[in-house]
Amino acid sequence: MNEPRTLDENQTDALKEVDSIGIGHATTSLSNMLNKKIDISLYNIRFVPLMYIPKLLEAEVTVVGVIQQLKGSLNGYILFMLPKHSAKFLVKSMLDEPCAGDAFSEMEQSALKELCNIMSGTYVTALSDFLGLPIGLSTPSQIYDMGDSIVNQVISMMSQDVENVLFLRTEFDIISDKMFGKMLIFTDSLSLPKMLEAMNKKLAEEG
What pLDDT does residue 68 have? Predict the structure, then answer.
C-alpha cells in the first residue's frame, strides 16, 4: 500500500489559489443564474487517505452526490456532495419556486446537475490551466444515497485503484443562508503522481 499523500505548504497554497480562481468563476456564474448575491468560500483542502473519508462525510447521512469522470491527462472522478436540505434550497433558488416532496423531480435533478457542473467545471478548468495539463469532464450523473455508499460506488468504478482523495470543503452563502458542500477528487495511482509532478514543475518555474 502506498504512503498517505500530504501537501507541503507551497502545494497547499497553490491549490488554494487554483480553488480561489475556480470559486471566483463559479460565484459569478451562479450569481447570474440565480439573480441573487452568492458567496462561496473554501474551508479546507487536503489529501485524505481513503480509509478516513467516511469520517469526514458523516457517512450514514443521506446526501445528494453528482459524479463526473475526469478525462484527458488525469483519470478518475470528481464528486460533489450536498446534504439533502442544502440541495433542495439551492434548487429552489435556481428555479425560483417551491420544491415539493422529498424526491427530486426531473427538472430539479437537471438544475442540480447544472449547479454542480458549474462548481466542478470551474475548478477543473482552473486546475487544468495551472498544471498545464488538458483535463475535461464527462456529463454529470446524480446519486441519492448515504455518503459512504456513494464513495464506494466511485471506488468501484475505479476498480479500487485509489488510496488518497483530494478533499475540498466549501460554504455557500445565499442571502445569509449558509450551507456546506464537499468536493472530492479521486485520481488513480498513475494520475496522482502526474498531477503532483506538474504542480511541482509549475512551482519551480514560478520560483
Answer: 95
Distances (CA, A) of 105 to 4, 101, 102, 111, 144: 40, 9, 9, 10, 13
> Taking residues 92-111, what's their average pLDDT?
79
Q: How far apart are CA 14 and CA 98, in angstroms?
A: 40
Question: Does residue 30 carry a pLDDT above 90?
Answer: no
Burial string for 37-55 (b: 16+ CB within 10 Å, else e) reads ebebebeebbbbeeeebee
Calculate the average pLDDT of the chain: 84
Q: What is the pLDDT of residue 3?
A: 52
Looking at domain 9-199, what is its CATH homologous superfamily?
CheC-like (3.40.1550.10)
Q: Where are the domains of the chain?
A: 9-199
Q: Give ∠ CA 16-20-23 in degrees, rounded to 5.
A: 130
Alpha-carbon span 136 to 68, nearest angstrom = 10
Q: CA-to-CA distance for 94 and 114, rounded, in angstroms?
A: 10
Positive or negative, the CA dihedral 198, 24, 124, 9 is: positive
How many Å apart are CA 81 and CA 139, to the nearest integer? 16
The answer to whether residues 33 and 26 touch, using CB atoms and an 8 Å cutoff, is no
Type of residue found at 139: T
Record the cell numbers describing residue 132, joined without a space. 498545464
Average pLDDT (50-76) is: 85
CA 27 to chain centroid: 14
